[in-house]
Amino acid sequence: MISKEEIKKLADLARIDVKDEEIENLRGEMDAILGYVGQVKSVTGDLREDVEIGSLRNVMRDDTDPAEPETHSKELIIEFPQKEGGYLKVKKIL
Amino acid sequence: MDISNLTIKEARELLDKKEISAKELAESCLKNVEEKNKELNVFLEVYDDVLKQVEDAQKTIDKNEARELTGIPLAIKDNILIKGRKVSAASKILENYQATYTATVAQKLINQNTVFIGRVNMDEFAMGGSTESSAFGTTKNPHDTERVAGGSSGGSAAAVASNMALGALGSDTGGSVREPASFCGVVGLKPTYGSVSRYGLMAMGSSLDVIGPISKTVTDAEIIFDAMKGRDKMDSTSINESITAPKILDKNAKIKIGVPYHVLEQDGISEEVRKNFDESINKLKELNFEIRDIKLPNIDKSLAVYYIVMPAEVSSNMARYDGIKYGLSVDGENLLDVYKKTRGDGFGEEVRRRIILGTYVLSSGYYDAYYSKAMLAREIIRSEFNKTFEEVDAVLTPTVPFPAWKIGEKKTPLENYMADIFTVTANIVGVPAISIPSGFAKINGKDLPLGIQLMAPHMSENILFEIGKKFLNE
């Protein structure tokens, strides 16, 4: 079974605070889910080369015509949880 | 006459003939919201400017410039953005968020003077099949209020089924339009991946997501789809018919519908669903469709593929909710602490679980065992479908293996995921699929709606509409 430490590490990687009792539940649930999805390993079959439809492709464009400065600033700044003047305020980083 | 039970097509005619006004139509829906919303928990917000929207629509109608959806009251799922309006994805993390731009589909409908009544409930960030993961309570099924309306677009389906709106927008990542439509006895269309712009739809699984309509009839689903579809420069994955052409049906030949009977042999399919499915096949035969037994050898692995690919994409997409740029922000000792507390408090249990699961399948050491195998399996299933569509025009399955369950009845995540067994395939492959009401299961004296699902080749929604209209006698 997936260990408590492993779940804790995943939660840390995902930047989520997870309480101890939830970690215990997650162990069982993840085990059941991983047990089920593990059947993808048994898929075998032919891949055809001729499929264009539905397949992924790169879409490129020139990096031009930027919006005028401050076109969207007002709406975006309103949504900042912490702000000072027109700036986004965050905790000290260094 | 209760005009809230009109179809969009019927309402269009009456509006254009000036036999009803846009105001009367919207008010008839709002009356149902007022009477039933408290019990059913469908609308998270009724917009305060409905009457203004109605006035604008009526002016357009009076100038004889009405288009298909002018003055038609619709409900919108709480994950599609309209600038200046609240949109929360039924999550605490976005509870007070106001959209800073408008989704392309919403703009297209606004340009037609469609009347948006309000935003409707869903599973948090569309993760679930019952709205039980909504941070704002579960939507109840209008056919039996002890049961779920389905999900994640449960509010959209319940709004249409209880005449609170003439149609609704939902989004479908693994069945989120079709499953609630089936549970509520209405029509739900998941269009071809890319045929409708995702710009302004909150991303869940970016390679799977698509916006789709929920409506009373197939004709109405087609009307909404036609109003929404098309390539959009703001969504580089969007396509139009010049990129992929629909399959054109030979008018003189019988339409061939393939049934993968082998998938009906697995456990967990309710007797009522199986019986109704067989009856539906007989009905289709009587309607002069040709039914063929087909094999899709790996279709039963779709659910496993889905529950690897989707959480992987979820874990990436949810990274943007960090308590810094917008939404909930929980204070902490340092920046890392702010992230962790905000995401721990702001995301509900199912969202946290999927992010952690996605982080696992993408992490070094497990990537090859899960994600990379799932991507290979996805290609194999896609290839099996393309081959199948050389033999048949459509593929038929039940929409969900059982009718709507009782609120709180399903205890484990995996039990919940099993509801998606027939629907996820279309998202894995990218093909269009529709759920059509096919009758009822009588359980404890209540009639619970059932649905059948049709899938067609990429961009061939026309085939789904053709079969669906005949099936519902439209």
Question: Summed up, what is this model?
Answer:
The complex is a heterodimer of chains A (94) and B (474). With 94 residues, chain A is mainly alpha-helical. Chain A has helices at residues 4-13, 20-37, 73-78, and strands at residues 83-84, 87-88.
Folded structure, characterized:
The complex is a heterodimer of chains A (94) and B (474). Chain A is mainly α. Helix content of chain A is 36%, strand content 4%. A two-stranded antiparallel ribbon of chain A has the order 1-2. Chain A is flat. Chain A starts with a helix and ends in a 6-residue tail after the last strand. In chain B, 37% of the residues lie in helices and 15% in strands. In chain B, strand 12 and strand 13 (446-455) form a beta hairpin. In chain B, helix 5 packs parallel to helix 6 (178-184) and helix 9 crosses helix 12. The model of chain B has no long low-confidence stretch (mean pLDDT 96). Classes of the chains: A mainly alpha (94), B alpha/beta (474).
- Judged by helices, strands and strand pairing, the structural class of chain B is alpha/beta
Q: What do the pLDDT scores of chain B average to? A: 96
Count every beta strand of chain A, where a strand is a DSSP E run of 2 or more residues: 2
Q: How many beta strands in the DSSP annotation of chain B?
A: 13
**Mean pLDDT, all residues of chain A:** 88
Fraction of helical residues of chain A: 25-40%
Order of strands side by side in the largest beta sheet of chain B?
1-3-2-6-8-7-12-13-11-9-10
Compute the gyration radius of chain A: what is it?
A: 23 Å
Multimerization state: heterodimer
Q: Output the structural class of chain A.
A: mainly alpha
Q: In angstroms, what is the radius of gyration of chain B?
A: 21 Å
Layout of helices and strands:
The complex is a heterodimer of chains A (94) and B (474).
Chain A (H helix, E strand, L loop, with lengths): L3 H10 L6 H18 L35 H6 L4 E2 L2 E2 L6
Antiparallel strand pairs in A: 1-2
Chain B lengths: L7 H9 L5 H19 L2 E4 L3 H13 L10 E5 L26 H8 L3 E6 L19 E2 L2 E5 L5 H8 L5 E6 L5 H7 L2 E4 L19 E6 L2 H11 L27 E4 L11 H16 L3 E4 L8 H16 L17 H12 L2 H14 L8 H21 L2 E5 L14 H5 L6 H6 L3 E11 L2 E10 L5 H11 L3
Parallel strand pairs in B: 2-3, 2-6, 9-10, 9-11
Antiparallel strand pairs in B: 1-3, 4-5, 6-8, 7-8, 7-12, 11-13, 12-13
Helix pairs in contact in B: 5-6, 9-11, 9-12
